[in-house]
Write a structure and sequence with these properties.
Elements lengths: L7 H21 L6 E7 L4 E6 L5 H12 L6 E5 L2 E2 L11 E7 L16 H9 L3 E3 L10 H12 L5 E2 L8 E4 L5 E7 L32 H11 L10 E8 L14 E2 L2 E2 L2 E9 L5 E2 L10 H13 L10 E5 L10 E5 L29 H8 L3 H11 L5 H20 L3 H8 L2 E3 L2 E3 L2 H25 L2 H9 L11 H16 L1 H17 L11 H13 L5 H4 L24 H6 L3 H4 L15 H39 L2
Parallel strand pairs: 1-5
Antiparallel strand pairs: 1-2, 3-4, 3-5, 6-10, 7-8, 8-9, 9-13, 10-13, 11-12, 14-15, 15-16, 17-18
Helix pairs in contact: 1-2, 1-3, 6-10, 8-9, 9-13, 9-19, 11-19, 13-19
Family: Belongs to the PI3/PI4-kinase family. Type II PI4K subfamily.
Pfam family, one: PI3_PI4_kinase
Enzyme class: transferase
Amino acid sequence: MSRNLESPVQTQMAVSALDRAFANSRSETRVGRWKRLFVQTDTGCVLDVELDRGDNVHTVKRKLQVALNFPTEESSLTLGDHVLKNDLSSIRNDSPLLLTKTFMHRSSSTPCMSPTGNDLQQQRDRGCPIELLVCPSRCSRTRPLVKDVAKAIRKGVDPVPVNSGLGGAYYFRNSKGENAAIVKPNDEEPFAPNNPKGFIGKSLGQPGLKRSVRVGETGYREVAAYLLDHHNSANVPPTILVKISHPVFHINEGVCANKNVGEGGTQAVSKIASLQQFIPHDFDASDHGTSSFPVSAVHRIGILDIRIFNTDRHAGNLLVRKQTGAGNFGNQTELIPIDHGLCLPECLEDPYFEWIHWPQASVPFSEDELEYIANLDPVKDADMLRMELPMIREASLRVLILSTIFLKEATAFGLCLAEIGEMMSREFTGMEDQPSELEFVCMEARRLATEQDDSSTEHDSADEDLTQFELDSEDHEIPKEPSAHQFEFKRQHSRNQLSKLDEADEEEEEDDIEVESNAGKLACPKPVNKWLANISKLSTSLKGVSLTDKTSRQLSAGPKVVDSVKTSKSNSNDTGSQLCNWGSANDMLPPSVSFVKLADMGAETWGLFLEKFQELLPEAFRMRKCSMTVQRAKQRLGTSCQF
C-alpha cells in the first residue's frame, strides 16, 4: 500500500536529523571505525555511512526509521541478489548498498537521503571528491587518473556534459583542462530517476533499457568488462566504480531535495558512477572502412564480446585510433572497445556483434589466441567478480560461465569467430524471432538436467531418514558453483568426445544398457541421436508463434519463460533459491523474449545443466559445419550455373 509522504520541509528536517545521527556516530570514534558503506536509495541519493563493530542492519535501519518516519519493515538493504538480514560482517568496506521500500508505493516523490546536514557536509568537504568503491586491489592503473581528476576538481576545472547518448555522462578533465575520464552516474541511466534527457519512469533495480539489465547496474558491467579483459587483451580502457561529488550532476525536479546553496555557492551532489579513462581517438568504426582493422584486434574484441555475451557491440562503441610513428606503415589502426553496460545480461538474449560479417571474423584464430582462450577459466572469473564486484548478480555470472564454456568448446572444435557469433545470434523469420543454435542446445540441456534431477530426487526420497540424520549432524553450507577442477575435468571429457566420436557412440550404447538395467527410472540422456530429434521438434513447435505467445508458453525442451522465478526449489541451501526468494528485485524482472533462463536453477540442477550442455555441443558444432559446407556447395553450384 502507498503512504502519504511528508512535505518537502518535513523531509528536509528528517534528512538533517539523519545526517546528525550518522555524523554523531562518526565523531564518537573515528579512529575505531569498523567499516564504511554507501547507502543509495532507489531514487539515486547517496549517503556515506560509517559503522562501528556493534552496528548491524537493524541499527542502521532504526536510524533511518527515526529520520525518515517510515517503518523499518517497509525497507530492505540489498547488495546485488542478497537482502541483508542483520549481520554486516561479510559486507566489504566501501560497498554500495541499495535501500528499497518493499511495501511503499514507488514514485519519484519518495523521500531520499541526500546528505545536507552541516556536520556531514563539513566532513565531506574535507574528503576527496572521488572515492574508489570495492575492487581496490585491481585499481593500480586508475589511481593516478583519479588523483589527477580530483586535483582538477579542487582547482575548479569543471567537467563537460556529454550531449550524445540516452543517459547522463560527463567528461571530467585533468589539471591541464584535457579530457581525462568519462563518468556515468548510475541514477542518470536511461529510465533512471535522474536521467537528464527525459528518459525516466523507473526506480533503481527495476528492468531497464534491456529487460535483463536493471536500471542502475550498467556501471557495474562496465567495470566487469575491464576486469575480465585479462592482460588487456581486447584493449578495454581502465574502468572503476566510484563515489564522486560535483555540482554538475543532474537532479530531476521532485526526485530529491534541491542542491544546497551556501556561502561558497552550489554544493556538490554525490553520485555512484563508473569512471573510465578517456582514450584520445580519431573516429569510431562507423566512420571508417573495416578493411584496415587488424585481424588480431577484431578477434580479441570478439573473444571478449562472446565471453560477456555483449548485447550492444555496434560500430559506435568501437573507437579507432590511427597508428603513427616509426615501424607503422600504411593505413594501420588501433581499436578501443567501450560502452559495455549492456553485457552480462541476467538471461540469454539476442546478442549484437557488429564484427560478425567483417572478413576478419572469418579468419581462423591464431595460435596465441587459441592459447589465450584455452587458458580462460570461467569459474575462476566468476569467483573473481564475486569478490571484486559483490553487487553483480548470480544470474549474470551464470551467463558468463555458459558463454565462456561455449567459446572454449567451439574453438577447440575448430570454429572461427564468425561461426561462433552466428550460433549465438537469433534469426528473425517475418516478425518472429527464432531461438539461436546456442539457445536450442541450452533448452535441450535444461530438459535433460531437469529429468535427471527429478529422477535423483525420487531416488533420494527413499533415503529420507538417513539424509535428515546427516543434515542434522553437520553444518549447513550454501552450495557453490562447480569448482575449477570439476570444470576442467568436464572440459577434457568433452574434448575426448570431439576427438573420439566412435568411442563416444560406443559409450552411449553402454549407457543405454545400464539405464535399462536400472528399471528405466534414472533419466540418463542420449546426447547425440536423441538431441537431433528434439531440435527438430523444437523448430516445428516455434513456427507460427508470435513474440508475445512465446513468452507465455512452455517449450517442450525448456522451462517456462513467464514466472520462471517462481519455479525455483524451496530448498534454502540452493543457489537458485538465493536468487529468487529474496523479494521484489528479482520479481521485478518481467517476461521478455527469453527462451532460456538460468537464475531459477538450483545449484545441483545448474551443475547437471552444464554437464549436459557440454555433452550436446559436439553434435551442434558438427551440424554447423555440415550446414556451412552445404551452403558453400550451393553457392558454388549457383555461380557455375550462371555461365
